[in-house]
Design brief:
2 domains; binds the ligand O=C(O)c1cccc(C(=O)CC[C@H]2O[C@@H](n3cnc4c(=O)[nH]cnc43)[C@H](O)[C@@H]2O)c1
Length: 330
Amino acid sequence: MKLLVVAATSAEISGLYQHFGLAEANFVQTPEFDILITGVGMTATAFALGTRLNPSYGLVLNVGIAGSFDHTLELGNLVNITTDVFAELGAEDHDSFLSIDQLGFGTNAYTNNYTSALPQVDRLPQVKGITVNKVHGNAQSIARIKSLFNPQVESMEGAAFFYACHQLQLPCLQIRSISNAVEPRAKENWKIGLAIWNLNHWLIELLSFLKNPTEFVRHQYSITFIKKRLVQGRYYYTTFTSNPDNEDIANHLANSDKRITEIQIEDIQKAMDGEAIEEHWGEVMGSQLEIFPKKGSVLIGYAKKTIPIGDFKQLLQEWLAFISSSPTLS
Ligand SMILES: O=C(O)c1cccc(C(=O)CC[C@H]2O[C@@H](n3cnc4c(=O)[nH]cnc43)[C@H](O)[C@@H]2O)c1
């Protein structure tokens, strides 16, 4: 299944280009996925999709940042926008608004139509979005649009994206990261960097998963391994998880250096072979580890997260392979 990733600006998916070693062009093709940068707004999106969208794509994915009307969504949170509305398309009727539907000229609301279960998508909250030409930044217009559509988020492209995919009947998803609250304009409150960071981590995890869903257990736990270059050519290895349930596991791995990881793998292997081991590791590397050979599970961290022993062994092996890739790590 080939994927088309659609974003308004290349800045919003800069981490993706970097991770896969791609040049920041407006249309990039790789064996597993293509990237299309449309430009900001509905017109630019419609034009770019008109030139590039075709039935060879198994999934079309719109990603970007968005403003939120919903106070339960924190800045930097990711959402799955399942319905998106052309909020300004229609006619004013004195104090009322007539949508394009009410005028009899079309449809103003479009939904995504991707039903396959992807763990990275399933764990995101599903929200209703509106698409606007003008970012809301005025108390009266915000109150008005809320009373008209009761939206949770807004963007400048989403509904146009759904419209184009709908025209070609292509499976599509719109995933956005909240960069700002929709409020009387206060640009200093926007967290664009955080929103883009989280979006890119999620995107890299999804694309790596689609590339090889069965190979990596870490993807089942939504854990991404990260290698950062420090000064003087040294590297720093850490982890990230977009699933709060797995934070203890991710931290445990990040805290395990090569030696500790090897010792854990040895003990886990012994436990799996029925040999006696120290089951109560207690606090190791700022994390709790208990091994239960009879139950076939391990407990990691203080949130009492228990996972199958085989999964833990494979996680450790993947981590060991990752951190062993550079001779600079002790
Ligand atoms: O500096 C500004 O005033 C400004 C206004 C809107 C967007 C931007 C951007 O840099 C991002 C463009 C991109 O972001 C989406 N976006 C983000 N927040 C909102 C929002 O509150 N309302 C509508 N769109 C938003 C949008 O989809 C654009 O593509 C800067």
